[in-house]
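Re: weekly structure request thread

Next one in the queue (349 aa):
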Amino acid sequence: MHKVFVVKPSYRKHAAVTIRIKYFVEALKNAGISVDIYDYNLGSKVSRLMKYLFPRIPKDLRRRTQEANIIFTSSPPPLLAIITSLLNEKYIIDVRDIWEEYAQQIYPSFLVKKITSKYYKALKNANAVVVTTDGMAQYYKEKLEIEPLIIPNGTDTEIIRCNKNISRDPNLMVVLADFDTPYQNLEPLLEAIALLKNTKLLLIGSGKYLSSYLSFAEKLGITNRVESIGHIPYNELPKYLCKASIGIVGRPFEYNPEYLYTIPTKIYDYLAAGLPILAYGPQNSEIQRFIENNKIGMYLAEPTPHKISETILALLAKAKNTRTHILNIASQYNRRTLGNELVDIINRL
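Done, posted below.
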């Protein structure tokens, strides 16, 4: 019987990586697989940088992994993949985002290049690499000549669910986001709201980029229709998502692999809440294919604010009639079921 050791970052309880790992761990335990979990302290930005440049295995981590025969970790942050690769055990890396692409907008390029070199070595030497979309699998196959396995992101349909009789605001849109990331691109949405009379927007999430969106809303004179409530624990999301009528996903109009090949977890949570999705970004993205193939909303490639405003009205008008179909799609992406796919991968190693 396998003994799996999970290395995860010591992020807040409801961070995306923590939630994804939580359901993987539950699936492993339900399958009778022994699991031990290590919370890796990333430290301050300065100490994290030193760990990237001079990676070392903490003594307690090395000691605790001695009885394990498979190590599992998730990236980003890529530091955990790098550290895990040094443990001389079989290991699996779960890749949720193409960190090396958007990191170039945040960190000096020479630093990203150094980190990416170590990271790619860890990926190439892994016993299995898991990604979340077909586009990501193809990206890493071409980059590294590996064969990634796909386990999509998902939602918990037992937590994110709405009472059928709930009273929704027919003019309310919602954006669920980590505003510490620079790629939400909400300016076109806010400009579209300024063209409409009654539409409202609820922002859920916190981070350093949030203030710039709120300032832009003030500049447009729509602060009375844009509400920000900060970070909300995952278990409490239904209280807010179920009030809305559509969910919004924005991406920069750039042909960057991060924006082309990934699907954010918020999409699945929107579906679980019965929300049709309005998304916009570059042409031929994984988000576009997912929305159009499943008929769960509308995707706009590099739209004008006027086009976004027209689409908002169209989606709001038919939101109620599409809800049953959207909930059916959500049921196909239940994290509790998707976790079993990791069990299958581990049993094949």
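The chain has two domains: 3-154+334-348, 172-331. The chain is about 45% helix and 15% strand.
Next request, please.
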